[in-house]
Design a protein that fits this description.
This protein is α/β, with parallel strands linked by helices and 187 residues long. 27% of the residues lie in helices and 19% in strands. The chain has 5 helices and 7 strands; from the N terminus they run βααβαββββαβα. A 5-stranded parallel beta sheet has the order 3-4-2-1-7, with helices on both faces. A two-stranded antiparallel ribbon has the order 5-6. It is elongated and about 100 Å long.
């Protein structure tokens, strides 16, 4: 006859520490620095997916800002579409708006839109600030990209740069935004 084996009963090994419980997730708090004490001398805007609608809402509400400082916008968009977007921005803002032209002098009271397929930067030319269009490779997989505009704005306006990021899914504008804050501007 077969002899039945005793049932296997798990035993607790008292020589080993109990299994560790997962540590609660610690979130680093968002630290906001005070808004720049330097009055903005330019408004630079970056937007992507959903941007045209957000831009229409923005420019409709900021007319007095446009009158005081130049507004430069990079919207991730191919050529032809930026021409149409500029026309809509002009109607919504009731201010001059258009695709930026290489060498054009940047002035308050106007909205400059990066043309589709080209990066828009700004540069000093004597006492003037001018548009500098760049046909270089995509930045952050985008052309036009936000970071080239943001970074070049620091060279011209330093801590007087105010940046707005409206929409999007990628990281374009993040590096430039950090650089603006490091230079004393605000995002």
């Amino acid at each position: 006859a077969a002899v039945a084996s005793p049932p296997i009963v798990p035993t607790l090994d008292r020589t080993q520490p109990p299994p560790a419980k997962p540590a609660p997730a610690v979130q680093t708090p968002i630290v906001r620095r005070p808004f720049s004490l330097t009055a903005p001398r330019v408004l630079v805007v970056g937007s992507s997916t959903g941007g045209p609608q957000a831009l229409m809402s923005l420019v409709t509400e900021i007319g007095p800002v446009i009158d005081r400082v130049p507004v430069l916008i990079t919207q991730h968009m191919p050529p032809t579409f930026t021409t149409i977007l500029a026309e809509h921005l002009a109607r919504s803002s009731r201010r001059p708006a258009g695709e930026a032209v290489d060498g054009e002098i940047v002035k308050p009271g106007r909205i400059y839109l990066a043309p589709g397929g080209r990066h828009m930067k700004v540069a000093r030319h004597g006492t003037d600030t001018v548009i500098a269009l760049d046909d270089g490779p995509p930045v952050n997989f985008c052309k036009p990209a936000v970071d080239p505009l943001f970074t070049s704005a620091i060279d011209v306006w330093h801590g007087g740069t105010l940046a707005v990021i409206l929409t999007g899914m990628g990281s374009d504008g993040m590096r430039g935004g950090k650089d603006i804050v490091a230079a004393g501007g605000s995002v």
